[in-house]
Amino acid sequence: MIYTVNDFIYEYLGMIPSSNVDWLSLSEHRLLGFTSGKLFIDMLNVSDIRKNLSFYPHDVKMYLIASQWALIAEEQAFVKRCGDCNDEIGSKIICSRIVERLMRLCFLYKDKFAPYSKWFGTGFNHLEINKDIKKEIITALSANSIIAREKHLVKAQMLVAQAHNESCVTESINIQVAKYYDRDIDVIYADKIAEKVRDSIKDIRMKQYPLIGSLSQVGNFVELSDNPKYSNRIKQLYTNRL
Q1: What is the DSSP letter of 215?
Q2: Distance of alpha carbon 64 from alpha carbon 94, whole angstroms
Q3: Within 13 Å, how many C-alpha atoms sit on residue 191's CB side?
Q4: Domain boundaries, the chain
Q5: In the beta sheet, which residues pair with residue 179?
């Protein structure tokens, strides 16, 4: 089948985004494919279109960063709390979920689209980030004790928070390991980072969106997140307010 450039873009992506909420409805995986595939001949100036879609606009990037930190904050104490209740499986599941969100933050700080689950780990391994982040993540995932899992997961969060400060997307944030209220649980209070990042968003409407990230950031949600025909419905998650 032969396509015009616009026909291909609209079938593959669904649209060329013209607003911040448009970007949130697009498949991150497909944005990666469209902007990083090899061009052998470019007589139609596709490279110019790809350049404009090479990464999220600033406010969209900040919204996604705030969302990932907010989602981490919601479960930051649960790795230890599940373990204290002898729920080892639950503790490991939550640990892996926080790890994925930390990995997604690394993609965002490096201005890289994240691939879908099949290539997610491979793409992360290719990121030029502090090697200690990868080390602490792997150690946290493989830990067989609650104490070790919490220790290395918190270290990974601290290192990603450091990467946040090094990226200079906001003013430097003072992040320290502290006890979760009166419990013997170590956290970095990731919600503080989420709030700081959200405050930096200039788009007033976007600043009010629920911090849920994008559907592309939900593992194995491809049938919905990668299907352009659902773009308008996806946008309603933000514009109609949950």
Answers
A1: G
A2: 20
A3: 7
A4: 5-239
A5: 186
Q: Which of 39-48, 120-129, 142-151 has the lowest mean pLDDT?
A: 39-48
> 155: number of CA atoms within 13 Å, CB side?
18
Asked if residue 206 lies in contact with residue 61, where contact means CB atoms within 8 angstroms, the answer is no
pLDDT in tens, 188-228: 999 999 999 999 999 999 999 999 999 998 877 888 888 88
Contact between residue 228 and residue 12 where contact means Cβ atoms under 8 Å apart: yes
179: number of Cβ within 10 Å: 11
Q: Which helix (H) or strand (E) holds 80?
A: helix 78-84
Q: Which among 53, 29, 31, 57 is positioned nearest to 216, based on CA atoms? A: 29
How many Å apart are CA 105 and CA 26, to the nearest integer? 18
Number of H helices, E strands in the chain: 14, 2
* Residue 107 to residue 123: CA distance in whole angstroms: 9
Residues with Cβ within 8 Å of residue 51, at least 6 apart in sequence:
none
